[in-house]
Amino acid sequence: MRFAGRTALVTGGGSGIGRATARRLAAEGATVTVADIDGVTAAETVRLIVADGGTARAVTGDVSVEDDVRAMVEAAAGPARRLDVLHNNAAVLSREVYGRDLDLTDMDVAVWDRTMAVNLRGAMLGVKHAVPRMGAGSAIVNTASVSALLGDADHAAYGSAKAALVSFTRYVATMYGDRGIRCNAVAPGLVLTDLARRVMSPGRLAEKAAERVLPDACEPEDVAALVAFLASAEARCVTGQTVVIDSGVTAHRPEHALRRIARD
Ligand code: NAD
Fold this sequence. Notes:
By secondary structure, the chain is an alpha/beta fold. The protein has helices at residues 16-27, 39-51, 66-77, 109-130, 156-176, 194-199, 202-211, 220-231, 254-263; strands spanning 7-11, 31-36, 55-60, 85-88, 139-143, 182-188, 242-245. The model has no long low-confidence stretch (mean pLDDT 97).
C-alpha cells in the first residue's frame, strides 16, 4: 500500500498501459483519476478499480487541450488540492495519425502536429497544471518509448515526440527537484496491450520475439509495476531518468538477433 492516502492522475487511463497503471496505483491505496479522450473506456477502468475495492473517478478530456488538462488536474487534486502522482501516458496511436506517420517526403503536416500536440504538449500541460498542486514526495512519470532511442523506417513523428519527452523529463526533474518533486520516464518496447495483440500479425510477433533476449514480451502490468516503483517513495533518489523496459531488445547488437534467426 505504497500510495495509501495519495492522489494520482493517469492520462490515457482508458486502456493498455494507462489502465494497468491506474489499477496498480489504486490497488496500492491511491485515489486515482482516470483521464482519457474516450469517456467509455475511462469509465470501464474506474468500474474495474471499484470492483477490486479501490477508489477512482473518470474524467473525459484531450491532453492536448489546456482547459481539459486543467480540469483533469483539478479533479485529481480533489478537495485537498494536492496531487501526489502524475502519469503522463496518453499518446495518439490511431490509424488516422500514427497510421499515417510514414514517409516524411509526403507526410501530412497535420499528422506531425497532432502527434506533437498529444504526445509532447500533453505532457507539458500535465506538468504545468500539476506542479502547483504538488509538494515534496510528489512524482511525475512520463511514458516514452524505445522509439525515442532508436531509429526506424517509419513513425518519425512518434519517435521524435518520445525523444523530446526524454529530454523534457530531465528538464522537469531539474526545474522542480529543489521542491522534492521527482520526474522520470519509462521507455517500453513492445507491450502486449489488447491493441497490439489485435493489430500485429503472427509474423510480426515472431520478428519481435527474435529481437528480445528474454523469452517473454512485456505485458501492461509489467510497465505498471515500473511506473508504480518510480512514483513511490522507494525511488526517492531517482529523478531525471528514463528506464527502458523491453525484455532486452536494446541490450544487444543487431547481429545477435540475426544470429538467433539464422540458428532457429
Ligand atoms: P492504448 O491505445 O491502449 O492507450 C492509449 C490511451 O490514450 C487510449 O485509451 C486513448 O484513448 C488515450 N488517448 C489517445 N489520445 C488521447 C488524448 N488526446 N487525450 C487523452 N487520452 C488520449 O496504448 P498503450 O500501448 O497502452 O500506450 C500507452 C503509452 O505507452 C503511450 O504513450 C504509448 O506511446 C506508449 N508505448 C506503448 C507501447 C506498446 O507497445 N504498447 C510501446 C512503447 C510505448
